[in-house]
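Morning!

This is the sequence you dropped in the shared folder:
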Amino acid sequence: MSKKNNIYLIGPMAAGKSTIGKLLAKRLNMEFYDTDAEIISCTGVEISLIFELEGEEGFRARETNQLQLLSKLDGAVVATGGGIVLKKINRDILKKTGRVIYLQCSVEQQLSRTKFDTKRPLLQIDNPKKKLEELMQQRAPLYESLADVTVSTNKTSSRKVISSIIRQLSTQ
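The structure's back. Tokens below.
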């Protein structure tokens, strides 16, 4: 696996990975891919149904498969799922095949952005705030260890986030 010109967006759910990814790809004249959208396209079903039928483990296996396929590209912007960093194989692929952008987002901002979202299986519980805090505690160190660039998306316009990413990438 050689280092390629891919850009991977990592971070918690609702950090803006898909939104920023599409805009960043357009600005850099690159192709855009979203691991969740690719899984939906390949399976023909929503992520929530995969979780229901196969559990989180089944979904994570599909996620790794998609990442392996997308990592073969050169010059793509890839938005990943929030939990992609949980598996070592995924962390290795991300680090070896592109530059990794960590989109930081507070739990409060995540709650605000997901309060009416019924398509996030991990949040279909009585206390989503507690779950988001647990996920952040578990995943933030992994995001930080992988990041080539870190940008906060809290109360920041997409335009400013993209400008910050491009500026930081250009200094590497």
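Headline: Residues 13 and 82 are 5 Å apart (CA to CA).

More detail when I'm at my desk.
O.
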